[in-house]
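Backbones bend. Shown next:

***
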Amino acid sequence: MLLHKILSQPTAPFREQHVIACVIQELKKATIPYFLDPIGNLVIGVSSRTEYLRLTQKQTPEPLRIFIAHMDHPGFHGVQWKSNKELEVQWHGGSPTRHLEGAKVWIANQMGWFGSGEMNTIQLHPSGKALSSARVRLTEKVTPQFSKSSILPDSLFGGFRFRSPVWTEGDLIYTKAADDLVGVFAILSVALDHYASRKRKYPFPFLGLLTRAEEVGFIGAMSHFELGWLKKSKRLLLCISIETSRTLAGAEIGKGVVVRLGDKFTVFDPGALRVFSDIAESILPGQHQRRIMDGGTCEATATTIYGLPSIGISVPLGNYHNQSLEGGPDSTAALGPAPEFVHSQDLIGLIQLCHALLKPQLPWTNPWKNKVKELKKNLLYYRPFLRSGI
């Protein structure tokens, strides 16, 4: 199962190589074009910078939909060996803040899974909102024999370990890292679906951008936009952030994918949101949710500050950043380590929305046409009343 394959990949900020390799393997099998930008972000749908630029210069009324998701999840990097079995680590991104002594972790390197361990000597960030550093005592290792000199500490990275990298219980999918490998899956799934059935009579207005190091400040996305490739685009662009976002009132697990009106930083493009909301109501009536997801930020913030029209889709996420907020299997006490989880029906809605956003001749350039017509009709009816009472 493709989703489980992606969720099983080890990843951390700046250590996304296994997710990249997994996605590229699927793209090659389906002969889907792709390339890595100079930062190491994975671009899906074109095979080079030249093709990328050509797509943005194409004279067409159809906006180019740029679907964005990130390949990293909060985790640690090795810093130095304190002994043959104890590694000092630095944490990157959000994390649980309690019950961390003795917490189980997985460890990987560029070759794959390296082993497992337990945390001790915990240091929180001065804000108190996340881990800063710790030591990891190896309890099991894949490599039977190694010395401190043979395994460089900064080649190792990891995160919290549970019974399995991914498993299901009923309609719930539990995993070490749903945020944002679920988004990666969605974008890859849309590309695979399209290229498996190339019978459409219209050009596919799609680019996928899978980014690095989102968890420490949109580093991959920001670096991509700093390349300047989109500055001189001659066609309309629409950026679509796909995120796995902290569950909130009105954005609850199992109640449908979320039309994200904004995040903690900003609201998104009003015209594009009007079109998006109408699409969601049309294909998922009563099966989607709609709200500002202000539990955090997403890469639509990065696209917005670069002046790109942006919208967002969210899948409600349990135990955001591996914090035991909703509890469940393998969870420790409140705010301790816990597996993230999502609902399978929310994922089905996510894929449906992604495909619907790619349909041709949607009213992106005139999103208010129907509303203006409605209000003008109302104006004509009430205009005679304006003469009264003066």
